[in-house]
Amino acid sequence: MSTKFLSQNLRRNVGVRNKRDKILIVCEGKKTEPNYFAKFPVKKEIVEVDIDDAAYITDTCVERAIALKEEAERNKTPYNQVWCVFDRDSHPLQGFNRAFQLADNNKIRIAYSNEAFELWYVLHYDYHVTGSTRDWYKEKLNSLLDEEYRKNSQDMYDKLKSKQERAIKHAEKLLNRYPQFSPHQNNPSTTVHKLVQELNKYK
Hints:
With 203 residues, this protein is of the alpha/beta class. The protein has one domain. It is built from eight helices and six strands; from the N terminus they run E-E-H-E-H-E-H-E-H-H-H-H-E-H. The chain is globular.
């Protein structure tokens, strides 16, 4: 497994160029999202995936990604792709929209979910078109999984991987429902599948 978690600073040897592709994923959540993406079976000989559990929200999550991206560039070990993962949830609208502008200005990609990351999990089973609360997603997953959904579970990737293609199709279909891309208004919607598709290229 080539995925690793970052601590406060990138641990790099200055001046040493990594010939593999490098992907940075900065997650708003401390456990749910990092645990999920850490399970992707990417080939370590062709890609290095760094996961940072930022524990920041929306625009501050992007600011963290910018800082790590710039540090890697100074150390001459730049990333091929930088992603931020966060939810719409109840975060202030101004910060949520600013996150997209900051990301666009700094060539950072966003895997967002409106309302919650758990929408991505539900899409593995159902094509869900109704805006729902975080609590609703939890109850729904209890039913779909036939067990209690644990938010910080380390095995959600394994439980869902056989249904991943279905989830991607459902996520794309959701986005296509909306006449324009407006993440703060498009509820439910997600672009997590776009990051999933990128990681799948390295299996």
